[in-house]
Write a structure and sequence with these properties.
single chain; Rossmann fold; 14% strand; binds S-adenosylmethionine
Length: 271
């Protein structure tokens, strides 16, 4: 698989994202206070933002819910609290939330499960967040959780038999050669550049962006993480299937996870 989108499982079945996103929900909860503090201290809701009294918020890589609804409700509650501490309640704020994900995301499930008591207007925005998604200077607040580790594509070199980065018999950079890891890092760098360039055009001056990402502590090896252990198990299971004649080796050579986990040093450098 070279390019394309890799949405979460839709619907409400046993393996749906809606029923299997507790981990991400709890992890977002852990950083909730940091986000609230940043909004309270840095988001200039009264002076720069609220001339039209409509706050436009985007959640990039929202999937199907419920996590995105919880995140949006939290952002709105903190922004409102800050705003009404500065102005009269009669000067009411309005919110418009843009839910973005790949076009192949299950937007039907997202829309049918929208909270009935929501106090915001809703818009679905299909498309890759590595491209422009909104008009210039149109967003006040951008949020993205657990989505930016998905690369826009598998680096081409991994599938090229003549490249030193050919990832034969492997499905990721964990446990692979330095060339493979460098190819992943280069793709991540390119993707982040596209992401940040697009957002720099779309967010108004004085706006804010919160990115929650899967990360690796500086100077840690990816193989030491739970993701690393999981990928290694999966890889050796696939190789067992090759050895048992259930699939062929070329299929494994063609399969690589388009996921990259960056560390704070890398992100600081890229930003
Ligand atoms: C693990 S889910 C996270 C969902 C939700 N934000 C949460 O915290 O539970 C990652 C989502 O990012 C989306 N995604 C990945 N790459 C994307 C891209 N380039 N553009 C838009 N959405 C993307 C996937 O389709 C998926 O729905």
């Amino acid at each position: 698989m070279m390019t394309g989108s890799f949405p979460m499982n839709g619907g409400y079945g046993t393996y749906s994202y809606a029923k299997n996103s507790q981990y991400q929900r709890e992890a977002s909860n852990v950083v909730k206070e940091m986000i609230n503090k940043a909004i309270t201290e840095k988001f200039d809701v009264k002076n720069k933002i609220a001339t039209s009294r409509t706050i436009r918020i985007a959640d990039l890589g929202c999937s199907v819910g419920p996590n995105t609804f919880i995140a949006m409700q939290n952002v709105i509650a903190v922004v409102e609290k800050k705003y009404y501490s500065q102005v009269l309640p009669s000067e009411k704020l309005e919110f418009q939330v843009f839910f973005n994900d790949h076009i192949s995301n299950d937007f039907n499930t997202l829309f049918t499960s929208l909270p009935v008591d929501r106090q915001y207007f809703v818009t679905g925005v299909p498309g890759s967040f590595y491209e422009l998604l909104f008009p210039s200077s149109s967003l006040h607040f951008v949020h993205s959780a657990y989505a930016l580790h998905w690369l826009s594509k598998v680096p081409e070199k991994l599938l090229d038999k003549n490249s030193p980065a050919w990832n034969k018999g492997k499905i990721h950079y964990i446990g692979a050669s330095d060339e493979v890891r460098n190819a992943y890092a280069a793709q991540f760098e390119k993707d982040m550049e596209n992401f940040l360039n697009a957002r720099s055009k779309e967010i108004i001056a004085g706006g804010m962006m919160v990115l929650i990402m899967v990360g690796l502590l500086d100077d840690f090896q990816p193989s030491e993480t739970s993701t690393g252990v999981t990928f290694n198990f999966l890889e050796s299971s696939l190789m067992d299937m090759v050895n048992g004649g259930l699939i062929n080796g070329a299929q494994v050579d063609l399969f690589n996870f388009p996921i990259y986990v960056a560390c704070p040093k890398e992100m600081t450098m890229l930003i």
